[in-house]
Design goal:
Elements (H helix, E strand, L loop, with lengths): L2 E8 L4 E7 L4 E6 L4 H16 L7 H11 L6 H22 L3 H4 L11 E2 L7 H15 L3 E5 L14 H13 L4 E5 L6 H13 L4 E3 L7
Parallel strand pairs: 4-5, 5-6, 6-7
Antiparallel strand pairs: 1-2, 2-3
Length: about 220
């Protein structure tokens, strides 16, 4: 069954894709968030031409060869566009098989644990702790991720001492039975990341996301 059309429906912040096969079956997917309208344009310009007319069953090969065919464009926008194609085709194939995408990939349905994510740095450690505790009590979250460092900060904190303070204050406030995680958003050098990582261990924080610049 071949791919007949690829459509996108996007805004600046979010973009959805619809892939239609030659028998009329359809699957929905999503390009990566943020500047999704640009990612959708890249999908139409540099991804769709290599996928249209190809078998939906061959999606793994298609996704594998597109970076080679577009080798002059190694950045993230190509991958963001490819995500819209791949997720939609997997949805289409799962519908054809009468299964979930999870089952198609060899998994099983089970409860999905969710965590609360701070998304803020312009907040004091104590205010952050109070806010996350309210979310814990109101919505029942048993895991939280908050931010350390400054985004792409080159070892300069959002303000002096914030990282050291927040990795102590938030875990203490949330207490036992709650998973604690932090996100560095490429803020640290390897040496500083190791130093901070030891502080995280000492304060019961189990996850350290993107401590160093991801492109290095």
């Amino acid at each position: 069954m071949k791919i007949k059309s690829i459509e996108t429906f996007s805004t600046e912040y979010v973009g959805f894709t619809r892939v239609t096969a030659e028998d009329g079956s359809q699957g929905w997917g999503q390009v990566s968030t943020y500047n999704s309208d640009i990612s959708s344009l890249v999908l139409h310009r540099q991804v769709a031409p290599w996928a249209l007319g190809e078998p939906v069953e061959d999606i793994a090969r298609i996704i594998d060869i597109i970076p080679d065919l577009e080798h002059k464009f190694p950045g993230s926008y190509l991958r963001r566009g490819m995500a819209g194609l791949e997720t939609a085709v997997w949805d289409l194939r799962a519908k054809q098989a009468g299964k979930s995408v999870c089952e198609m990939l060899g998994g099983q349905h089970k409860p999905l644990r969710a965590y609360g994510s701070s998304m803020k740095r312009d907040i004091t450690p104590q205010d952050e702790a109070d806010r996350l505790c309210r979310l814990r009590d109101e919505f029942g979250f048993d895991a939280f991720k908050f931010r350390v460092a400054a985004e792409c900060g080159r070892d300069v904190d959002e303000w002096p001492g914030r990282t050291e303070e927040i990795v102590q204050v938030v875990p203490k406030s949330l207490g036992d039975g709650v998973a604690k995680m932090v996100d560095g958003n490429s803020g640290f050098s390897p040496a500083r990341a190791i130093e901070v990582g030891r502080m995280l261990e000492d304060n019961g924080i189990s996850h350290f996301e993107e401590p160093c610049p991801y492109w290095e």
